[in-house]
Design brief:
The protein is mostly helical. The chain contains 7 helices and 3 strands. The longest helix is centred in the C-terminal third of the chain and has 16 residues.
Length: 153
């Protein structure tokens, strides 16, 4: 069976994840709990979970610090947040993708929560990341053709 770990300082969230997960059906043991990133790292060392749910805002060690430490200590592990944030960057690089739609595609019901998670992870807002990316692309490739004037002067 797979092993799961929930790292969250809010007891109601821990309980909700525990109750909403159909653990047995998916071959997952009932999840163990940790209340901050430091305790989460200790739990990972102890029982090597296959799935880890991580809150971003916690006391002692927050989610970003946890992910940095865990990625260094367990380099072969894949972290859902890390994968989601990498995909967010890819999607943000296409200016036709609205941030609201990106948030929804990545499983965030609230685009403000997505924006906070992105900012916490990369220290930049999604909209600023997009502006910076497009500016770098323009500096590299020259201005993009306008839809009204498809050929540059």
């Amino acid at each position: 069976m797979y092993k799961a770990l929930i790292i969250d300082d809010e007891k109601p969230v821990q309980i909700a994840i525990q109750k909403l997960g159909n653990w047995k059906y998916y071959g997952i043991e009932p999840p163990r709990l940790a209340v901050n990133g430091r305790d989460g790292l200790a739990a990972m060392r102890e029982f090597h979970p296959d799935i880890v749910f991580v809150d971003m805002n916690m006391p002692v060690m927050d989610g970003v610090s946890f992910l940095q430490a865990a990625s260094g200590e367990f380099p072969d592990s894949q972290y859902v947040l890390k994968l989601r944030m990498e995909r967010a960057k890819e999607l943000l690089e296409d200016e036709d993708n609205k941030i609201l739609d990106i948030a929804e595609r990545l499983g965030y019901a609230d685009n403000h929560y997505f924006s906070r998670a992105f900012r916490n992870y990369y220290n930049i807002s999604p909209s600023q990341y997009r502006k910076d990316f497009l500016k770098r692309q323009e500096e590299k490739n020259g201005p993009a053709p306008s839809p009204h004037h498809p050929y540059p002067p």
